[in-house]
Each structure stands twice: as structure tokens, then as C-alpha cells.
Amino acid sequence: MPPFSRVTVIGLGLIGSSIARGIRARMPDVCVTGYDASAEVRDTARAIDLCDTVADSAGASVAEADLVVLCVPVGAMGAAAAEIAGDLPAGAIVSDVGSCKQAVATALREALSEAVIVPAHPVAGTEQSGPESGFASLFHGRWCILTPPEGTDPAAIDRVADFWRRLGAEIEQMAPDHHDRVLAITSHLPHLIAYTIVGTASDLEEVTQSEVVKYSAGGFRDFTRIAASDPTMWRDVFLTNREAVLEMLQRFSEDLTALQRAIRWGKGDELFDLFTRTRAIRRGIVEQGQDDAKPDFGRTHE
Ligand SMILES: NC(=O)c1ccc[n+]([C@@H]2O[C@H](COP(=O)([O-])OP(=O)(O)OC[C@H]3O[C@@H](n4cnc5c(N)ncnc54)[C@H](O)[C@@H]3O)[C@@H](O)[C@H]2O)c1
Ligand SMILES: O=C(O)C(=O)C[C@]1(C(=O)O)C=C[C@@H](O)C=C1
Hints:
Layout: E1 6-10, H1 14-26, E2 31-35, H2 39-47, E3 53-54, H3 58-62, E4 67-70, H4 77-84, E5 93-96, H5 102-111, E6 116-117, E7 120-122, E8 143-146, H6 154-166, E9 170-173, H7 176-203, H8 209-214, H9 219-227, H10 231-240, H11 242-264, H12 268-287
Parallel strand pairs: 1-2, 1-4, 2-3, 4-5, 5-6, 8-9
Antiparallel strand pairs: 7-8
Helix pairs in contact: 4-5, 7-9, 7-11
Nicotinamide-adenine-dinucleotide (NAD) binds at residues 10-16, 36-38, 41, 71-74, 76, 79-80, 97-99, 122, 125, 129-130, 230, 233, 237.
Domain Prephenate/arogenate dehydrogenase: 5-293
InterPro entries: 6-PGluconate_DH-like_C_sf (IPR008927), NAD(P)-bd_dom_sf (IPR036291), PDH_C (IPR046825), PDH_N (IPR046826), Preph/Arog_dehydrog (IPR050812), Prephen_DH (IPR003099)
Keywords: Amino-acid biosynthesis, Aromatic amino acid biosynthesis, NAD, Oxidoreductase, Tyrosine biosynthesis
């Protein structure tokens, strides 16, 4: 039996709509209610039959829920939680999918002082956003990291883990501050680098816009996919995970300076050793079947 029978998804963008579709595909008996602050998104969600019900207010959407999943940008988590505070049923579990965990956990606890909260982060996504971009298989074979605060009811953690396993994810548990440091280097910094390199290329006076488009067939093209990611989401991620990102950025710029010196002084061995090491890391990722380089992730969009 599914761990929940009435799930409310708040924020019907890429992740929220993928959860709604995943529930339809993997837990068809579960009733899904959706809500989004944008009336346009709610209309689209109704038009594409994303949920059993799309409510017109956050409070109404949670009134009968046993699980509420907040799928809004991390900077909006506190406000979204505050909106449901007065209507949340006593036994309901609240979760979220935010890309940073520590600050979000604090915001959720402040808004929902009595609720059982089990924060989660599915490490799966694309550069798309909005209700039509989601797909049921997004979480298949991907990690979902749970960051429950100390003292969280283990039965609640198990139910949320079961929910994500049924959506196809594998579960890992971590302390929120550790999560934020790990994701700062594996996800947040790569996005910052992609935004920078695409911005720098388009600013170069000697390179025209049409040349940027015309010659972006190789490595640069991969950066442009990442740099097309949602501006609101990523603004919020960098402002929210500020400390960890700045720490990793400091390490990164020191390593970049070392590379700069190696190039300047013709230290070919240093370059060769680093590139050999990084090639082995890439091959390890591919061997583990986690190669996401293809734009459609090699997965079926159900
Ligand atoms: N995109 C990814 O790759 C990815 C992966 C994992 C986790 N996440 C996290 O998932 C969350 C959602 O990201 P997404 O990619 O689905 O974004 P999205 O832009 O596709 O969707 C976000 C939706 O939230 C709605 N919204 C904003 N504020 C709201 C509020 N106060 N109440 C109700 N609805 C509100 C917006 O109208 C929008 O429809 C973010 O916290 C993000 O960090 C994203
Ligand atoms: O592949 C992508 O497009 C993503 O950006 C996915 C990605 C990532 O960096 O891995 C982005 C943010 C998330 O919080 C989790 C996953």
C-alpha cells in the first residue's frame, strides 16, 4: 500500500508536475491535489489534467492532505509554508524538494512550528521549468536526499522514503549542512560556472552573437544547456546557500589560478596529470550509469 493516500503538491513547475505525473504512473490510487501561486500555471495544470484537483488557494489544497510537498523556489518556501499553516491537518507530514536544505529547514520550522517535517531533495532535474516540462520518469534511478532534523519521528522518515522509492528514486540521508556543502560543489558551482562562461562569451566584443550560436557545437553547447536553467530558482539557490557556495568558489578560483600558472609557465605535466585524473572521474560516472550528458537524459518521458 502506498505510504500516503492524499498528496498535495504546492508549486506545479518542473519538479511538482513530475511528482504529480510520477504519482499517477506509480501510485494510481493516490489522490493528488495541486496548487500554484500563478493563476496561469493553475489553468495549464487543469488543461493538461495534471492532478485530480487543482485548488485556488494554498489553504484549500492541504485541507485533506496526509502529505504536502512544497515544490516552490527555495526563497519562497517560508511564504508557501506560512500560507498552509492554518489549514494543515494535524497528522499530515510536510516535505519539500528544495535544492538547499539548511535555510529551508529553518524557514519551514518557523512557519510550521507543530508540523512533522521531513525535508527532501531529489537530485534530478533539467534546465526546463513550468507544469508542461515535468515527466514521470524524472526521478528514476536518481538519488533523493532526505535531511530530517534530529528527533524526527523515524516512521515519518520511512514513509517519505517509501514515497520517493515508489517514484523510482534511491534514498540517502544526510545532515542538512553536509548536504549544502556537497551540493555546492556538485551542482551549484557548475551552474555558476555555466552562467559565467556563457555570459562571458556573449560579452566578448570580438565574438559576435551569431558566432556564439554558430560554433556552439561542442563543449560550449553543454554549458548553454545548464545556463538556460530557471533564473528565479538559481538566484534563490545562490542567495540561500551563500556560505557553502562562496567557500567552494574560493577553492575553485585557487585551483583555476594554479592552472593559469601551469599554462603560463608551460608546465605540461601538471596539465596532463590533472586532465588524466578528471577523465578517470568521468569514466567512473559513466560506468555507474549516471551519464546525464544527453539532453533527454536517455530516459523515456512518460
Ligand atoms: N529544476 C531542477 O533541476 C530542480 C531539481 C531538484 C530540486 N529543485 C527544486 O525544486 C523547487 C522547484 O523548482 P522547479 O524547477 O520545479 O521550478 P519551476 O519554476 O518549474 O516551478 C516553481 C513553481 O512554483 C510556483 N510558486 C512560486 N512561489 C510560490 C508560492 N509561494 N506558492 C505556490 N506556488 C509558488 C511558481 O509559480 C512555479 O510554477 C525549487 O526549490 C528547486 O530548488 C529543482
Ligand atoms: O541536470 C540539470 O539540468 C540539473 O540542473 C539538475 C540538478 C543538478 O545540478 O544536478 C539541478 C539542481 C538540483 O537541485 C538537482 C539537480
